[in-house]
Amino acid sequence: MLNRYDPSTRCFQRKSPKIEGLSHLLLTSIAAPVSARKLGNTLGISPHTVLDYIRILEEVYLVQTLSFFSYSLKEQASRQKKVYCIDSGIKNAIGFTFSMDMGRTAENIVFISLKRSGSEVFYWKNEKGWEVDFVVKSGLDVGKLIQVCWDLSDKVEKREVRGLVAAMEYFNLRKSTIITEDILKEEQIGEDVIEFVPLWLWMLRNDQQL
Q1: Which end of the chain is more exposed for a tag (fewer CB within 10 A), N or C?
Q2: Digit-coded pLDDT (tens) for 65-94
Q3: SS3 readout for the chain
Q4: What is the average pLDDT value for the chain, to the nearest integer?
Q5: Which of these CATH numbers, 3.40.50.300, 1.10.10.10, 1.20.120.80, 3.40.1280.10, describes 7-92?
Q6: C-beta of residue 142 within 8 angstroms of C-beta of residue 125
Q7: SS (H, E, C) 178-191
Q8: pTM for the full model?
Q9: Exposure string (b/e) for 50-59, b if CB count within 10 Å is 16 or more?
């Protein structure tokens, strides 16, 4: 059999270490905004190539990206995306980390569950940097706001609630959710209600809606 020269194969072989390196970096920083410029500097490739590789990783179902919510498509396209792994077991196996990092793992699980339900999902952040992990659309409108917080100390709870209250005002919603490790309660803030629910119970409810 002739040993034919296949340029496309040689090209992929040259790219393979860079794609593998990018995979490790992405799975180590799950749920964080992706800077193509910083990743490119680390790997020695251009930001444009980083974005091309991320698209490849999406096509082979290793990761999925989460866009910033904006009523302006131009702003949405210009903002950094977040990256999640399609399988939390793969994230823990491949990602370079010294701990289980249950907060990010829980957030990844919630993302997978939302996508599996067919929801159109985004993240949101205001000009003060107050953030909401998941903005879930219902038809043309935003229907749900979800934070994921595993370690709910007083300081962390205040920060997570602050972001949700700002988002509820922005989207004109009266209720939102914080997914926790084991806390089940409701907190009234003026006319707004924030539900605290354990991950296992939220997953059960979400599965029942499928």
Answers
A1: N
A2: 999 999 999 999 999 999 999 987 777 666
A3: CCCCCCHHHHHHHHHHHHHHHHHHHHHHCCCCECCHHHHHHHHCCCHHHHHHHHHHHHHCCCEEEECECCCCHHHHHHCCCEEEECCHHHHHHHCCCCCCCHHHHHHHHHHHHHHHCCCEEEEEECCCCCEEEEEEEECCEEEEEEEECCCCCHHHHHHHHHHHHHHHHHHCCCEEEEEECCCCEEEEECCEEEEEEEHHHHHHHHHHCC
A4: 88
A5: 1.10.10.10
A6: no
A7: EEECCCCEEEEECC
A8: 0.87
A9: beebbeebee
d(CA 159, CA 169) in angstroms, rounded, equals 16
Which amino acid would we find at residue 191? E
- Give the residue carrying structure tokens 């991950």: 199
CA-to-CA separations, 142 to 109, 158, 176, 179, 197, in angstroms, rounded: 21, 23, 11, 18, 20
